[in-house]
């Protein structure tokens, strides 16, 4: 399900349904369009928290900085940086 709060903020959730379980929330996330770039974040039912910032630095050139961590265990922190043309 997706809900657009305003032109800058969108929230979404991902659920699964089956005969055995009525509803499992798999992930909850959002997108915030700021002057710095698009900030995306989500929390999964596996307790993984992830976020990324996507910024257009030139026409059709995007830089993405991302990171994720499992729960509050910062020894599982992973990060990345990417450029797409």
Describe it for me?
With 85 residues, this protein is an all-beta fold. It has no helices and 7 strands. The protein has one domain. It has a 7-stranded antiparallel sheet with strand order 1-2-3-4-5-6-7, with no helix packed on it.
Element-level helix/strand string: EEEEEEE
Structural class: mainly beta
Strand order of the largest sheet: 1-2-3-4-5-6-7
- Mean pLDDT, all residues: 92
Largest sheet, in brief, is: 7 strands, antiparallel
Counting DSSP E segments of at least 2 residues, the number of strands comes to 7
Give the helix level as a range of percent: under 10%
Tally the helices: what do you get?
0
Q: What is the oligomer described by this structure? A: single chain
Q: Show unreliable segments.
A: none
Which term fits the overall shape? globular
Distance between the termini: 31 Å
Beta-strand portion reads over 45%
Tally of discrete structural domains? 1
In angstroms, what is the radius of gyration? 15 Å
Any key phrases for this structure?
85 residues; mainly beta; 0% helix; globular
Quick overview:
The protein has strands spanning 2-4, 9-16, 24-33, 38-44, 48-58, 61-70, 73-84. The protein is an all-beta fold and 85 residues long. It has a seven-stranded antiparallel sheet, with no helix packed on it.
What is the secondary structure topology, with strand pairs?
Elements: E1 2-4, E2 9-16, E3 24-33, E4 38-44, E5 48-58, E6 61-70, E7 73-84
Antiparallel strand pairs: 1-2, 2-3, 3-4, 4-5, 5-6, 6-7
């Amino acid at each position: 399900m997706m809900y657009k709060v305003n032109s800058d903020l969108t929230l979404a959730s991902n659920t699964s349904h089956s005969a055995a379980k009525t509803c499992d929330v798999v992930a909850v996330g959002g997108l915030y369009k700021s002057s710095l770039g698009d900030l995306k974040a989500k929390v999964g039912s596996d307790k993984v928290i992830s976020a990324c910032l996507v910024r257009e630095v030139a026409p059709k050139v995007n830089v993405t900085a991302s990171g994720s961590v499992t729960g509050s265990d910062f020894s599982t922190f992973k990060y990345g940086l990417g450029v797409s043309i």
